[in-house]
Amino acid sequence: MTSLNSSSRLMATAALGAFLLGALPAMAQETTATAPAAQTAAKPEIGDFGFDTTGMDKSVQPGDDFYAFANGTWAKNTQIPADKSNYGMFTALGDLSQKRTQEILEAAKGDPNSMIGRAYASYLDSAAVEAKGLAPIQPWLNKIRSVDKAGLAALLAEADRSGVSHFFGGYVGQDDKNPDVYIYSMGQGGIGMPDRDFYLKDGERNAKLQAAYVKHLENVLTLAGEKDAAARAQAIYAFEKQIATVHWDKNDSSDAVKVYNKMTIGQLAQSAPGFDWTTFIRGVGVKENALLVAQPSAFTGEAKLLADAPIGVIRDILIVRSLDGFSDVLPDAVAQEAFAFYGTALSGTPQMQERWKRAVDFTTGNLGEAVGQDYVAKYFPPETKAAMDGLVKNVLAALDTRIGNLTWMQPATKVKAKKKLANFTTKIGYPDRWKDYGKLEIKADDLFGNSLRSNQFAHDDNIGRLGGPIRRWEWGMTPMEVNAYANFGMNEIVFPAAILQPPFFDPKADAAINYGGIGAVIGHEISHHFDDQGAKYDETGKLADWWTPADVAAFEAAGKALVAQYDAYEVLPGEKLDGTFTLGENIGDLAGLTIAYDAYKKSLGGKEAPVLGGLTGDQRFFLGWAQVWRRNYREQNLSQRITTDPHSPSIQRSWVSRNLDPWYKAYNVKEGQKLYLAPKDRVRIW
After folding, report:
1. 378-383-385-391 Cα dihedral, nearest 10 degrees
2. For the CA atoms of the chain, what is the radius of gyration?
3. Residues 526, 460: contact at Cβ < 8 Å?
4. Of residues 164, 173, 126, 670, the one with CA closest to residue 447
5. What is the pLDDT of residues 562-587, one digit of tens each?
6. Paired strand residues for 78
7. 433-457 burial, b if ≥16 CB within 10 A, otherwise e?
């Protein structure tokens, strides 16, 4: 599964061939969805035709910096809120979604029969949380303090079920080579910073983060009541650095073929001796014998490190992970300490969100579809869903035509590509069936217990997939999420309700703006199924070779050109993008914009688009694309993203237009301007 946008806090992931943790978040039993009520807008919500012209900086030539031309005044005048690491269109809509959700939860708060109301109320009751202190988590911490090597595997299985991260992660998802069957997949873990590079790469910024992280470890151990915290923090860091040395890097971990390593529990035990794999895997609830192990050599290395490490260091790591993992439902001192490192040191965010915002996020994070039913009924009109259906069909048709006209793809491969396209499932707005949270106990006076039980509920439901039919109705995002994703195993594209708003989509806006915005987003998600990883899956969602060698060679050559283009971008002094790591998302942007442009032109029915606000249809189309990427970053957050985020930063995402011939004509871009590429150097894939 790959998404349009990533979260601001990116942690080490155990995902197998996916960006988010797990192929899909845990799902629950479904109930029938209800259709939302109708709402309409009288005119475009933004400007006269859907674009904010006041945010432009017309003193900049589009060919020198298209992002600044389209968004420069907005960028200059927009401050990042104190509780955010970055701010732009995604976060603005996220704020709107959060505020709307608050209104729903406030109305439910006083209803003892409302599960979402009880969850929300439990988070808002900070006095009760402070009064209880660490008492709710102490039984678990005491288990950690008393564990020995013989009991470690069973304890880690319990940690898994409780939502405490540790030395590796696991989830149940589709078997990439047999997508009609679920399988338990495992990935490397064990580090508290977002990526191995934070431990292994030199530089002033990394040195400061390493020092801040060691201090964070010391502070958490102190909060837990442990003695000699400074020395023990140094021991934790030294051990995590050893783990980082055996981790696969992000490029290998993102390769769908490299991470597909099927083995039995016995084979895992043989290749990674020193840890009781049978006890752990049976302890998390897996009865089957087949596994997928994403990074086998990392498991070998971690098993040896665990076998050789003093039990005290392992205990200390688990204490820290537990307090960090539950920090938002523990006293404020714990929450503030976690935020001081993960929010401020890593991302530069000065201030934690107000408690009501965190209460909304807690409730939607654990009961997303229970909240979502009310959200779509109130805020997602049927005409938006209908209009989106039409846009998706137009963009799919545009890609179908492009596949037919490709000069580099062999005829037999074109037939298979078209078949894959024809088999797509599109999910828009909200699920057809809602999750049933009936087995989850939520209490208005037990915040920690609500969090723990929610983690256990999600874990059990995820493990419960094994041996059952594929749940094709499930969603990996809530309706309130401002994002979209492509799921390779399901051969689907998914667009939650909250992203189907201006500036991405407004049924009352000019078609050029909508096609440049949500049309390119649709194209982006569709094209993920044909990017450097998605193209490895056939029309059934199976990881398989369906391209000829000539197709692969042509595709890889174009990919290398795009890698080189993005490798050259220096985002911060001395910090360049990794074009290989960001390749899939860059292909998505390039293909999405290309396909959306074709769909837009076809929507005009052979007629010329009107001139609006002095702008031609083509000019407005590319401005619609640039507008959705308006975003300002704090420097720490931007630096972190260069290391951990497979998406390029917003400025470079807008610049993908330099590869499209119509952009040059629309803005009269000439040789000598900074973004100019000679026709032979413009990357053309789809």
Report:
1. -150
2. 25
3. no
4. 126
5. 999 999 999 999 999 999 999 999 99
6. none
7. ebbebeebebebebbbebbbbbbeb
Residue 181 φ then ψ, to 5°: -130, 140
**In a 10 Å sphere around its CB, with 0-12 CB exposed, 13-18 middle and 19+ buried, how is residue 194 labelled?**
buried
Largest pairwise CA distance in the chain: 76
Q: Tell me which residue of 451, 422, 480 sits closest to 362, measured CA to CA.
A: 451
DSSP 352: P
Q: Where are the beta strands (DSSP E) in 129-276?
A: 168-175, 178-188, 262-264
d(CA 597, CA 523): 10
Average pLDDT over residues 619-640: 97
User: What is the sign, positive or negative, of the torsion defined by CA atoms of 282, 286, 287, 290?
Assistant: negative
**Weakest-pLDDT range from 296-300, 317-321, 526-530, 653-657:** 526-530
pLDDT band at 17 (very low <50, low <70, confident <90, very high): very low
CA atoms within 13 A on the CB side of 608: 5
Question: Per-residue pLDDT for 29 more than 50?
Answer: no
Neighbouring C-beta atoms of residue 91, cutoff 10 Å: 20
> What pLDDT was estimated at residue 34?
35
CA distance 610 to 223: 64
In order, the DSSP letters of 297-328 are: HHHHHHHHHHHHS-HHHHHHHHHHHHHHHTGG
Q: Which of helix, strand or coil describes residue 635?
A: helix
Q: Which tokens sit at 70? A: 């389209």
Which residues, at least 6 apart from 145, have a Cβ–Cβ distance to it below 8 Å? 315, 319
Three-state DSSP class for residue 242: helix
Residues 6+ apart with CB under 8 A from 58: 69
Average pLDDT of the segment spanning 324-333: 98
Tokens linked to 133: 């202190």
The two structure tokens encoding residue 497: 């309700």
pLDDT confidence of residue 317: 98
pLDDT at res. 42: 62
Strand partners, 428: 495
CA dihedral of residues 505, 510, 516, 522 (deg, nearest 10): 40
Number of helical (H) and strand (E) elements in the chain, helices listed first: 27, 14
Q: Are strands 290-293 and 425-429 parallel, antiparallel or unpaired?
A: unpaired
Query: Angle 152-162/138-146 helices, nearest 10 degrees?
Result: 160
- Six token digits for residue 238: 């030294």
Mapped onto helix, strand or coil, the DSSP state of residue 449 is helix
Query: How many residues comprise the chain?
Result: 686
Backbone phi, then psi, for 170, in 5-degree steps? -145, 155
Q: Which domains does the chain have, with CATH numbers?
A: 33-102+358-432+473-681 (3.40.390.10), 134-329 (1.10.1380.10)
CB-based contact 493:451 (threshold 8 Å): no
Q: Quick one: average pLDDT of 48-75?
A: 98
Q: What is the pLDDT of residue 531?
A: 84
Whether residue 399 has pLDDT greater than 80? yes
Owner of token pair 């037999």: 412
| HSE, side-chain direction, 13 A CA sphere, residue 10 | 24
What number of other Cβ atoms are within 10 A of residue 6's Cβ?
Answer: 18
Those residues with Cβ within 8 angstroms of residue 218's Cβ, 6 or more apart along the chain or in another chain: 229, 230, 232, 233
- How far is 360 from 124, CA to CA, in rounded Å? 9
Q: Cis (ω within 30 of 0) for the bond into 503?
A: yes
Q: What is the pLDDT of residues 421-439, one digit of tens each?
A: 999 999 999 999 999 999 9
Burial degree of 237 (CB within 10 A; 0-12, 13-18, 19+) = buried
